[in-house]
Amino acid sequence: MQLELRGITKRFGALTANDHIDLVVAPGEIHCLLGENGAGKSTLMNVLYGLYQADEGEILLDGAVQHFDGPGDAMRSGIGMVHQHFMLIPVFTVAENVMLGHEQTSFGGRLDLDAARKRVREISDRFGFSVDPDAIVGDLPVGVQQRVEIIKALSRDARVLVFDEPTAVLTPQETDELMAIMRQLRDEGTSIVFITHKLREVREVADRITVIRLGKVVGEAAPTASNSDLAALMVGRAVELVVQKQQARPGPASLVVENLDVIDPNGLKVVNDVSFTVHEGEILAIAGVQGNGQTELTEAIMGLQPRVNGRVSLGGQVLTGLSVRRVLDAGVGFVPEDRTEDGLVAEMTIAENLMLDRSHSEPFVARGSLRLEHLDGFAEEKKKEFDIRAQSISTPAGRLSGGNQQKVVLAREMSRDLRLLIAAQPTRGIDVGSIEFVHKRMVETRDAGIPVIVVSTELDEVVALADRIAVMYRGSIVGIVPGDTPRDVLGLMMAGERPSEVAA
Amino acid sequence: MSATITPDATPVSVTLESTEIRSWKAPIALAVFVVVAVVLFVVLGRDGATTFRLSSDSDVVQLADWVLPARPTGITVTVLLALLTVVVVALTTMGNRLSARARRMVLAASIVAFTFLFLLGFLTWAAAGAAIPVTGLLLGTVSLSAPLIFGALGGVISERVGVVNVAIEGQLLAGAFCAALVASVTGNPFVGLVAAMIAGVLVSFVLAAFSIKYLVDQVIVGVVLNVLVLGLTSFLYSTVLSVDTAALNTAPRFPRFPIPVLSDIPVIGPVLFRQTLIVYLMYIAVVAVYIGLFHTKWGLRLRAVGEHPQAADTVGIRVNPTRFWNVSLAGAVAGLGGAYFTLDSVSSFGKDMTAGAGFIALAAVIFGRWNPVRATFAALLFGFATNLQNVLGAIGSPVPSEFMLMLPYVVTVLAVAGLVGYARGPAASGKPYIKS
């Protein structure tokens, strides 16, 4: 089925998320929609899927104008979507999820689960998925959950399939498998829209590429275009793709983690017997697919996890068992992975956010009251130093772009006397300019002789920053390998295979 | 630094290791009860024998009375309770040798056995020298539980679809009031029943409109609705119903309708099958809600909306209408519970006659973990506690009546806090769905 979008415009208040976008996707082609975070790709697809109503423009399928009031209409017309955040109900089984919304019923209105099971097996066999229709979705690994999403779309006979940032949660191997599935679907005549910001994937699988920037189509490119050309088109200027850094000069071991376990409220060991050290002046990257214990590991070091066994010490001082305040006082800087949830108070101003961790003592507080003039001076200074782009220091943090929010968090965490910096997903969802800035500051921190831990699910980021790489899988460290380890080895380690020869 | 690394084929274990989080809640609670048992049954032990009457004179099959000597029974029960506590302590400290599943089974069985033994000991002690009508005790339990069960079913439906229903109390009270008024005026209890359902739905409309359409905090709307209904019915009671009690507040009650054969079974026959239409409706409602929730399209969609509304939306389910109509349905079910007060137990409406039953029903929803069948058993437990207080009051127990009045509420708090602990409800319950 041929999909055509003509002059789609979608505004949210003063912001124009999509500005007269035209797009044609031919049957049997993989069409990549490339753009930075916030360029308007997801908004466009939500318009296509009937979740948003376009302010202007029209959607055509095989030349006929469509009108979608909701996702139900879009699905009936043959549009399926594999969402970035899976639209699956975790407590339901695979079969229940697949049948939801177009249930078959047998005698007396009872759900016909057998029919749904059969449908799941049919599609699962066709693509070699091996998905158990009776498994509870919440118990499945994310890679399998994504396959359930694909089955769900295909069970409604989708002829146009949209993949919204599908690789964010996958290991490199799973990504390769997904690409193979996409090619198989294409060869069967399905039109595929593949939304991403990862250049490598685009070049590998796309038949055609459309680049979007700030809500506008800025150009088309052939899959043969070079990485730097695509990046320049996507960002609007030449981009430095590699992080400039000198060889690390590691000092003595500083952070020592020994046999650390973290037990979650259900009694599961989400971090299992993890030991590693980080030296002064080196960056240790913790790689791994989202949800393999990285979050809990960093939170355990910070004192944010209630059930922890083992020992963490920094420069000889034991951190385990200390309150978060004491850990901060020991000189630990922490950039949490979800900045809007854990990093900032969105309603508070930039200045207030900058002093959140020091609201209890000098120099921001004297005799129980805030010293506002001192705070203002401090905030102005940091705003300049960290290039925070905002109208003023009294702008609420929630109004900033992702990149500028992250700079506020960094500014706060890096303006204490640090003896350790932990940055979890420091560049997730921020623009390329801010990514460059954040990476530069990480390397500078390292060069100042401070141990740095960077947790990242993006292999590109891990490879760009790390002096050593620890790969986590299912709560354990699979291995700690040098920063120049080839990507395919890292990929296999992210899927749980141990390197047979581990070099320090 | 550049050693070549090749992955070998030994994958790290795929499942996460599981460690049981040791909870001392159960052993401590049991130990406290053992102390109570020692004090009551042994130290303050009473002489005389306790008679458990298993049949009433009107029963077809007569069972012999069960006579227990109070003091020896009390001592035996206390020893058994202490043994069970030792088992549970052992399970907590050294249970690692058993699988998690086996451990849970043993723990559950121990707690159930403990509860029954303690109850037996307590009844024997409290009624020493007198007789306990067992059928009467259980019959009263069903009567007192009926409105709680209807309320809890309403709560389960509403919360499963994603709207916290604190307004059960208001729905019960509105149902009771309208049932009394309409049945009195028309002289027909069936019309009263329908009026009660409509009253429950009207309360639900307000809850649904404010929480779904205007995004007001659902708990606050619920609380305000309860106060509103209480004020409104009390006002109308004094200004309208009391003016002409004979015409406006003398409702015809549903007659008892014994089911042939079934009602002749000893003990459970008179308890379960010599009831009124409303109670039979309740049995049907429990089964219907259970099957509906877990085996039909209606239930699948309802639960989807309560768990992950956005996912439901993306497969074409209209989230807010689904919520609106199911909250209304929940109101109708709770309204039936209200009708029970004025068309079954007594035949007239009284100010605040539900007296917090809606909140106990809410506790039953949580204690029953949002499952209609478990919530029904929870409601029965609370009903039993209430009736125990009535029965012991009637036969003259040594416990002060003020203390016995606390019993149902103490049971509720202990049950919800101690036994449930952290229960996971429908993920999106209480959160309005805002389409961006």
> How many helical elements of chain B?
16
Arrangement of strands in the largest sheet of chain B: 3-2-4
Major beta-sheet overview of chain B: 3 strands, mixed
Give the rounded overall mean pLDDT of chain A: 89
Beta strand % of chain B: under 5%
What is the number of independent domains of chain A? 2
> What is the subunit organization of this protein?
heterodimer
The pLDDT mean of chain B sits at 87
Find the CATH superfamily of the largest domain in chain A. P-loop containing nucleotide triphosphate hydrolases
Strand pairing plus helix content of chain A: what structural class?
A: alpha/beta
- Give the overall shape of chain B, derived from the CA principal axes: globular
Order of helices and strands of chain B: EHEEHHEHHHHHEHEHHHHHHH
Question: Keywords, please?
Answer:
heterodimer; A: alpha/beta; Rossmann fold; 32% helix; B: 436 residues; mainly alpha; two-stranded antiparallel sheet; 16 helices; 6 strands; disordered N terminus; membrane (chain B); transmembrane helix (chain B); ABC_transp_permease (chain B); cell membrane (chain B); transmembrane transporter activity (chain B)
Description:
The complex is a heterodimer of chains A (504) and B (436). With 504 residues, chain A is of the alpha/beta class. Chain A has helices at residues 41-48, 71-76, 94-99, 113-126, 142-154, 172-187, 199-205, 227-235, 294-302, 324-329, 339-343, 350-354, 372-385, 402-414, 432-447, 459-465, 487-494, and strands spanning 3-12, 15-25, 30-35, 56-61, 64-66, 79-82, 160-164, 191-196, 208-213, 216-221, 253-263, 269-279, 283-287, 308-314, 317-318, 332-335, 365-366, 369-370, 420-424, 452-456, 468-473, 476-482, 497-499. The model of chain A has no long low-confidence stretch (mean pLDDT 89). Chain B is built from 16 helices and six strands. Chain B has helices at residues 25-43, 70-94, 100-126, 134-160, 168-186, 189-213, 218-239, 245-248, 268-272, 277-295, 297-307, 309-314, 319-345, 357-367, 372-395, 401-420, and strands spanning 7-11, 49-53, 66-69, 131-133, 257-258, 274-275. Chain B has a three-stranded mixed beta sheet with strand order 3-2-4. A two-stranded antiparallel ribbon of chain B has the order 5-6. Chain B starts with 6 loop residues before the first strand and ends in a 16-residue tail after the last helix. Chains A and B meet through helix 2, strand 12, strand 22, helix 17 and strand 23 of A and strand 1, helix 11 and helix 12 of B. Strand 23 (497-499) of chain A pairs antiparallel with strand 1 of chain B.
